[in-house]
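Encoded backbone
================
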Amino acid sequence: MRLAPDSTLHNLPELAPEHAEVIRATLPLVAAHIDQITPLFYTKMFTAHPELLRDRFNRGNQHQGAQQKALAASIATFATHLVDPSLPHPRELLARIGHKHASLGVTEPEYRIVHEHLFAAIVEVLGADVVTPEIAAAWDRVYWLMATTLIDFERELYDAAGVEPGDVFRETRVVERIDDPSGVATFVVESADPARPLPGFLPGQYISVGAKLPDGARQLRQYSLINRGGDGRLAFTVRRVPAEANIPAGEVSNWLHDSVGAGDSLEITLPFGDLTIDTEATTPVVLISAGIGVTPMAGILEYLAAETPARRTVILHADRSADTHPLRETVADLATRLADVYFHAWYEAGGDGLLDVTRVDLPEDADYYLCGGTGFLQHVRSQLMSAGIPTDRVHFELFAPNDWLLDADQEPVLA
């Protein structure tokens, strides 16, 4: 069961034959220059609209270049499917983008801003002599087909949430902070306005949290919900993110750890996210996570333990050690409340190494839910595919903007 109908994503529009011919011919050219186009696009957009970088876009991802690659790949993947519908359908990619946009309160005018500066960057990099009116018209059509598809889907999400487009931000009060032995912190919030309680949500969904940072920026980050919901309270767990080589520290996560406790005010958004289990199904569920990727699994387990404890469940987790395993005791306790469950954790230190699904008796007809870093998800998806698990039964959440890296069949677009 999803938060909103996804018919918009199933029935993608078609390119006119003359536009499709141009896109086929120019995809290699655009792909060859994409690493120049996207950074220039963001430079132009943030110069014209500095408030977007300060208050909307993830500054950490911008610093690493991850968001630039994600944008380029999503447009190229969409264009490739339009000219060759036999390729894997991008509905899951579009659904993840749409839910993320809804969680950020994105609205239609922002697509116009992106269009203006993206196409200015394309012309500047490729040259006005190369970007003929025919080429410009074809790529303009691709962009607006994708943008309109997302705008319509996001409108469905807003309608399902009972709000106007973009009206997703809520002021809350932290009623409890729980520090886990692994070093993560869980924050429980409720609405600051008793007349406007926080809504329920589907197991596996997330919220965005707005942090008012010391430099005046308001940065937004997504955190999975770990409670069952329905009581007007939302709970999410945060891991501190130290700086590493070429990777900045986690601005919002560290701010939450250092500055937020019980009684404090906190801006959040309504819940969104498409890594949700089918609450009407009775088939087995396999939850596979690494590190802080355990959080959506904890939310799913809360639901299973309360509503369908007889549903067969397999819980697999990978971490550096038992000491760094977030919510380990919480997950273990939830597992004891299930009638048919298998729970195993792999630890690099003092354990049995890397997670290996081939060592597990996987149930037939199961749905698989994955959450972790890019390398971990690539590793697990590869193992599942080798085991003959249909790709439509494998669902994932990636705590980074690089979802395109997981779609191996579509990578050559940008090779």
